[in-house]
Amino acid sequence: MMQRKGHPKSELGNKAHTPAPMTISTARTLSLAECTRMLQGSDPWATLGYGESHFRAIAKNSCHSTNAKVTIRRKVIAFTSFKFGFMRGAYMSLLAVDPDYRHTGVGSALMDYAEKLIFLRTKNVFLCVASFNEGAQEFFKRRGYRPVGVLHRLIVDEYDEILFRKCGEDH
Ligand SMILES: CC(C)(COP(=O)(O)OP(=O)(O)OC[C@H]1O[C@@H](n2cnc3c(N)ncnc32)[C@H](O)[C@@H]1OP(=O)(O)O)[C@@H](O)C(=O)NCCC(=O)NCCS
Protein backbone atom coordinates (compact mmCIF):
# COMPACT_ATOMS: atom_id res chain seq x y z
CA MET A 1 0.00 0.00 0.00
CA MET A 2 1.39 3.42 -0.98
CA GLN A 3 1.14 5.81 1.95
CA ARG A 4 2.02 9.49 2.24
CA LYS A 5 2.16 11.66 5.33
CA GLY A 6 1.80 15.42 5.54
CA HIS A 7 -0.20 18.21 7.12
CA PRO A 8 -3.09 20.39 5.95
CA LYS A 9 -1.66 23.83 5.14
CA SER A 10 -3.65 25.62 7.86
CA GLU A 11 -2.43 23.28 10.59
CA LEU A 12 1.16 23.76 9.47
CA GLY A 13 0.72 27.51 9.89
CA ASN A 14 -0.25 27.10 13.54
CA LYS A 15 3.04 26.10 15.10
CA ALA A 16 1.87 26.71 18.69
CA HIS A 17 -0.09 23.43 18.55
CA THR A 18 1.24 20.02 17.68
CA PRO A 19 0.38 19.68 14.00
CA ALA A 20 -1.97 16.79 13.27
CA PRO A 21 -0.40 14.34 10.84
CA MET A 22 -2.35 13.75 7.63
CA THR A 23 -2.03 10.30 6.09
CA ILE A 24 -3.01 9.42 2.52
CA SER A 25 -3.36 5.79 1.56
CA THR A 26 -5.35 3.46 -0.64
CA ALA A 27 -8.34 1.64 0.83
CA ARG A 28 -10.19 -1.46 -0.30
CA THR A 29 -13.63 0.12 0.20
CA LEU A 30 -15.49 3.23 1.34
CA SER A 31 -17.89 2.56 4.18
CA LEU A 32 -21.54 3.64 4.13
CA ALA A 33 -20.94 5.68 7.29
CA GLU A 34 -18.05 7.55 5.65
CA CYS A 35 -20.00 8.19 2.44
CA THR A 36 -23.03 9.44 4.35
CA ARG A 37 -21.00 11.68 6.65
CA MET A 38 -18.94 13.19 3.82
CA LEU A 39 -21.59 13.57 1.10
CA GLN A 40 -24.95 14.08 2.80
CA GLY A 41 -26.16 17.67 2.68
CA SER A 42 -23.05 18.77 0.78
CA ASP A 43 -22.92 20.06 -2.78
CA PRO A 44 -22.80 18.90 -5.52
CA TRP A 45 -24.58 15.82 -4.13
CA ALA A 46 -27.32 17.76 -2.30
CA THR A 47 -28.35 19.75 -5.40
CA LEU A 48 -28.16 16.58 -7.51
CA GLY A 49 -30.62 14.90 -5.15
CA TYR A 50 -28.35 12.22 -3.72
CA GLY A 51 -29.77 10.41 -0.71
CA GLU A 52 -29.42 7.26 1.34
CA SER A 53 -29.85 4.85 -1.62
CA HIS A 54 -27.11 6.63 -3.61
CA PHE A 55 -24.67 6.58 -0.68
CA ARG A 56 -25.44 2.88 -0.19
CA ALA A 57 -24.68 2.20 -3.88
CA ILE A 58 -21.45 4.23 -3.78
CA ALA A 59 -20.24 2.34 -0.70
CA LYS A 60 -21.28 -1.05 -2.12
CA ASN A 61 -19.61 -0.47 -5.50
CA SER A 62 -16.44 1.00 -4.02
CA CYS A 63 -14.89 -2.48 -3.84
CA HIS A 64 -14.72 -2.46 -7.67
CA SER A 65 -12.74 0.80 -7.71
CA THR A 66 -9.42 2.05 -6.47
CA ASN A 67 -10.08 4.22 -3.41
CA ALA A 68 -7.77 6.61 -1.59
CA LYS A 69 -8.46 8.30 1.73
CA VAL A 70 -6.95 11.15 3.72
CA THR A 71 -7.10 10.65 7.47
CA ILE A 72 -6.22 12.76 10.47
CA ARG A 73 -6.09 10.94 13.79
CA ARG A 74 -7.88 8.02 12.08
CA LYS A 75 -10.77 10.27 10.99
CA VAL A 76 -11.43 10.28 7.24
CA ILE A 77 -11.38 13.88 6.02
CA ALA A 78 -11.30 13.26 2.25
CA PHE A 79 -11.58 10.45 -0.25
CA THR A 80 -11.55 9.67 -3.92
CA SER A 81 -12.54 6.72 -6.09
CA PHE A 82 -11.45 5.86 -9.62
CA LYS A 83 -11.55 3.02 -12.10
CA PHE A 84 -9.11 2.02 -14.80
CA GLY A 85 -10.20 0.95 -18.30
CA PHE A 86 -12.16 4.05 -19.28
CA MET A 87 -11.31 5.51 -22.74
CA ARG A 88 -7.56 4.78 -22.51
CA GLY A 89 -7.46 6.15 -19.01
CA ALA A 90 -9.09 6.14 -15.61
CA TYR A 91 -12.44 7.64 -14.64
CA MET A 92 -12.56 9.41 -11.29
CA SER A 93 -16.12 9.11 -10.04
CA LEU A 94 -15.69 10.72 -6.64
CA LEU A 95 -13.61 13.37 -4.89
CA ALA A 96 -14.76 14.83 -1.60
CA VAL A 97 -13.07 16.85 1.12
CA ASP A 98 -14.76 17.34 4.51
CA PRO A 99 -16.13 20.93 4.46
CA ASP A 100 -14.13 21.71 7.64
CA TYR A 101 -10.89 20.97 5.78
CA ARG A 102 -11.52 22.59 2.38
CA HIS A 103 -9.09 25.23 1.09
CA THR A 104 -6.29 23.84 3.24
CA GLY A 105 -4.56 21.87 0.46
CA VAL A 106 -6.14 18.50 1.32
CA GLY A 107 -7.88 18.11 -2.07
CA SER A 108 -4.66 18.99 -3.91
CA ALA A 109 -2.63 16.51 -1.84
CA LEU A 110 -5.16 13.76 -2.51
CA MET A 111 -5.25 14.55 -6.25
CA ASP A 112 -1.41 14.51 -6.38
CA TYR A 113 -1.49 11.07 -4.81
CA ALA A 114 -4.28 9.71 -7.05
CA GLU A 115 -2.78 11.10 -10.26
CA LYS A 116 0.57 9.53 -9.39
CA LEU A 117 -1.11 6.12 -9.09
CA ILE A 118 -3.12 6.66 -12.28
CA PHE A 119 -0.31 7.94 -14.50
CA LEU A 120 1.88 4.99 -13.52
CA ARG A 121 -0.59 2.81 -15.40
CA THR A 122 -2.38 4.91 -18.00
CA LYS A 123 -2.27 8.23 -19.81
CA ASN A 124 -5.60 9.98 -19.14
CA VAL A 125 -7.77 10.92 -16.21
CA PHE A 126 -11.42 11.73 -16.87
CA LEU A 127 -13.98 13.11 -14.43
CA CYS A 128 -17.31 14.94 -14.48
CA VAL A 129 -18.17 18.16 -12.68
CA ALA A 130 -21.70 19.56 -12.39
CA SER A 131 -22.26 22.74 -14.41
CA PHE A 132 -23.17 24.68 -11.24
CA ASN A 133 -20.06 23.52 -9.38
CA GLU A 134 -17.82 26.38 -10.50
CA GLY A 135 -15.44 26.08 -7.54
CA ALA A 136 -14.56 22.50 -8.42
CA GLN A 137 -14.24 23.39 -12.13
CA GLU A 138 -11.70 26.06 -11.16
CA PHE A 139 -9.87 23.59 -8.91
CA PHE A 140 -9.52 21.04 -11.73
CA LYS A 141 -8.61 23.65 -14.40
CA ARG A 142 -5.78 24.85 -12.17
CA ARG A 143 -4.57 21.25 -12.04
CA GLY A 144 -4.43 20.98 -15.84
CA TYR A 145 -7.83 19.45 -16.54
CA ARG A 146 -9.59 20.64 -19.69
CA PRO A 147 -13.33 20.44 -20.48
CA VAL A 148 -13.81 18.02 -23.37
CA GLY A 149 -17.57 17.65 -23.52
CA VAL A 150 -20.92 18.49 -22.02
CA LEU A 151 -23.28 15.72 -20.95
CA HIS A 152 -26.58 17.51 -21.08
CA ARG A 153 -28.90 16.87 -18.14
CA LEU A 154 -27.07 13.65 -17.26
CA ILE A 155 -28.17 13.50 -13.61
CA VAL A 156 -30.87 16.14 -13.19
CA ASP A 157 -32.86 18.17 -15.71
CA GLU A 158 -31.68 21.52 -14.34
CA TYR A 159 -27.93 21.01 -14.84
CA ASP A 160 -25.38 19.42 -17.14
CA GLU A 161 -22.27 17.44 -16.30
CA ILE A 162 -19.01 18.68 -17.80
CA LEU A 163 -16.50 15.99 -18.75
CA PHE A 164 -12.89 16.96 -17.98
CA ARG A 165 -9.70 15.28 -19.15
CA LYS A 166 -6.10 15.51 -17.98
CA CYS A 167 -3.35 13.95 -20.05
CA GLY A 168 -0.26 12.50 -18.37
CA GLU A 169 3.19 12.93 -19.87
CA ASP A 170 5.44 10.33 -21.50
CA HIS A 171 2.68 8.03 -22.73
C1 LIG B 1 -13.26 20.73 -4.93
C2 LIG B 1 -12.55 20.21 -3.69
C3 LIG B 1 -12.22 18.71 -3.86
C4 LIG B 1 -11.22 20.98 -3.54
O1 LIG B 1 -10.54 20.49 -2.41
P1 LIG B 1 -9.82 21.50 -1.39
O2 LIG B 1 -9.12 20.69 -0.38
O3 LIG B 1 -10.82 22.50 -0.92
O4 LIG B 1 -8.80 22.22 -2.39
P2 LIG B 1 -7.37 22.82 -2.06
O5 LIG B 1 -7.35 23.47 -0.73
O6 LIG B 1 -6.34 21.79 -2.33
O7 LIG B 1 -7.40 23.97 -3.18
C5 LIG B 1 -6.40 24.19 -4.10
C6 LIG B 1 -6.82 25.31 -5.03
O8 LIG B 1 -7.92 24.92 -5.84
C7 LIG B 1 -8.76 26.05 -6.09
N1 LIG B 1 -10.07 25.85 -5.47
C8 LIG B 1 -10.44 24.87 -4.60
N2 LIG B 1 -11.74 24.99 -4.28
C9 LIG B 1 -12.18 26.08 -4.94
C10 LIG B 1 -13.43 26.75 -5.01
N3 LIG B 1 -14.52 26.30 -4.33
N4 LIG B 1 -13.53 27.84 -5.79
C11 LIG B 1 -12.47 28.31 -6.48
N5 LIG B 1 -11.25 27.72 -6.45
C12 LIG B 1 -11.11 26.63 -5.70
C13 LIG B 1 -8.05 27.24 -5.47
O9 LIG B 1 -7.16 27.73 -6.42
C14 LIG B 1 -7.30 26.59 -4.34
O10 LIG B 1 -6.23 27.33 -3.89
P3 LIG B 1 -6.48 28.34 -2.63
O11 LIG B 1 -7.16 27.55 -1.53
O12 LIG B 1 -5.10 28.77 -2.30
O13 LIG B 1 -7.36 29.42 -3.16
C15 LIG B 1 -13.38 20.43 -2.39
O14 LIG B 1 -13.70 21.79 -2.31
C16 LIG B 1 -14.65 19.62 -2.31
O15 LIG B 1 -14.67 18.51 -1.76
N6 LIG B 1 -15.76 20.15 -2.84
C17 LIG B 1 -17.05 19.47 -2.81
C18 LIG B 1 -17.07 18.24 -3.65
C19 LIG B 1 -16.68 18.48 -5.10
O16 LIG B 1 -17.01 19.49 -5.68
N7 LIG B 1 -15.94 17.47 -5.66
C20 LIG B 1 -15.41 17.55 -7.00
C21 LIG B 1 -16.40 17.32 -8.08
S1 LIG B 1 -17.44 15.92 -7.87
From TrEMBL:
Domain N-acetyltransferase intervals: 22-166
Pfam families, per the entry: Acetyltransf_1
KW Chloroplast (keyword) present: no
Keyword line: Transferase
PROSITE patterns: GNAT
Family matches, as CDD domains: NAT_SF (cd04301)
SUPFAM superfamilies: Acyl-CoA N-acyltransferases (Nat) (SSF55729)
One MF annotation (Gene Ontology) recorded for this entry: acyltransferase activity, transferring groups other than amino-acyl groups
Protein's name in the database: Acetyltransferase (GNAT) family protein
